[in-house]
Amino acid sequence: MSDGHRIVVVGAGAFGTALAAVIALEGRSEVTLLGRDPSLMADLRADGMHNAALPGIHLPDALQYSAEPEILAGAETVLFAMPSQAQADAAAQFGPYLAPGSTVVTCAKGIDRGTSRLLTEVLEAVLPHHPVAVLSGPGFAADIARGLPTAMAIAAADIAEAERLAYAISGRTFRLYASSDRTGVQLGGALKNVLAIACGIVEGMGLGDSARAALIARGLAEMSRLVEALGGRGSTVQGLSGLGDLVLTATSHQSRNLRFGISLGKGEPPDFARGDLVEGAFAAAVAARLAEGHGISMPITRAVAEIIEGRLDIPSAIEQLMTRPITTE
Ligand SMILES: NC(=O)C1=CN([C@@H]2O[C@H](COP(=O)(O)OP(=O)(O)OC[C@H]3O[C@@H](n4cnc5c(N)ncnc54)[C@H](OP(=O)(O)O)[C@@H]3O)[C@@H](O)[C@H]2O)C=CC1
Ligand SMILES: O=C(CO)COP(=O)(O)O
């Protein structure tokens, strides 16, 4: 039975559809998936399946679909599940329809490229009268939508708000842990994508699993330095968003960021058969710029950014990383 909490998930891609499906499966909150394409939403309603984003996965009967932004007026909580670089536009587009005081949760894993700002800052600038929370952590959309056990983090400035959201969104297969560190939780998601690309390069070049483990551990140190520099808690990235998500995406071929890195490592053009979104390819340069601006060392992130921009070849990047001055851990 629903507790009467109403949630709208905006963005009918893989993650938005999976989140809406898993919330509907539990039935604790009423949930509507809001997409921009009316014909897609009509097809989802008719077929109970999103063949483009989540092929072969049945969506729960309780899930409702809409292409009408007016539906937002009835929601206490709104999840923004579009890509990072679309979050500012989405806030401008959907903001006027939001119910007063409703909470907006960014579910994207990235940093705004145009402004180098965190997504919470981007959303707060456009939606100053709405609390802004962050959902991030390890979980592939297909696993979540299939009802496989998954755990993620949800962060709000007010921990009581994070706990309220965790309860409203969690279910038997999808478990959210509450946090008050929005900076740590969102940077954990954004930066792990950059490190997954690095691990893909290592895999594509056949450099071995030991190199991958070193990247994961040293990458985690980079993450926590940037989190602290931007006012978060370094220890946050030792949790689900950060280490948890890095282990997942640095090792699973389901990850688009890992697959992109593998292509780079093999010297092949990336295979974007379905126009795959590779968030780390946007985040690398922004994170490297932020690190430089704050005077902190993020050599792996910087190398990934320079490789993607074509300013550094992979053998030189490896040489640079391996010949840095010997230091303490
Ligand atoms: N896929 C996954 O396993 C996971 C993804 N994420 C994160 O979720 C985010 C989205 O990824 P994912 O769902 O995979 O991406 P997809 O490419 O599958 O879907 C993105 C969706 O965003 C919609 N969209 C784009 N711009 C806007 C806009 N301005 N307003 C409303 N909707 C918009 C698109 O709608 P349209 O079709 O109308 O253009 C599309 O449906 C990323 O940041 C990703 O890192 C997080 C965890 C897991
Ligand atoms: O963030 C994800 C799982 O937690 C999805 O990773 P990719 O975007 O690399 O596919």
Automatic annotation (TrEMBL):
Catalytic activity field: sn-glycerol 3-phosphate + NADP(+) = dihydroxyacetone phosphate + NADPH + H(+); sn-glycerol 3-phosphate + NAD(+) = dihydroxyacetone phosphate + NADH + H(+)
Enzyme class of the recorded protein, top EC level: oxidoreductase
Positions with a binding annotation for substrate: K109, R256, N257
E.C. number: 1.1.1.94
SUPFAM superfamilies: 6-phosphogluconate dehydrogenase C-terminal domain-like (SSF48179), NAD(P)-binding Rossmann-fold domains (SSF51735)
A GO BP annotation: glycerophospholipid metabolic process
PROSITE patterns linked to this entry: NAD_G3PDH
Stretches that traverse the bilayer: none
Annotated Glycerol-3-phosphate dehydrogenase NAD-dependent N-terminal domain residues: 7-160
All copies of domain Glycerol-3-phosphate dehydrogenase NAD-dependent C-terminal, residue ranges: 181-318
Range of residues in the leader sequence: none
Active site (UniProt): K192
UniProt-annotated location(s): Cytoplasm
Function according to Swiss-Prot or TrEMBL: Catalyzes the reduction of the glycolytic intermediate dihydroxyacetone phosphate (DHAP) to sn-glycerol 3-phosphate (G3P), the key precursor for phospholipid synthesis.
Name this protein carries in UniProt: Glycerol-3-phosphate dehydrogenase [NAD(P)+]
Source organism phylogeny: Bacteria, Pseudomonadati, Pseudomonadota, Alphaproteobacteria, Hyphomicrobiales
Gene name, Swiss-Prot/TrEMBL: gpsA
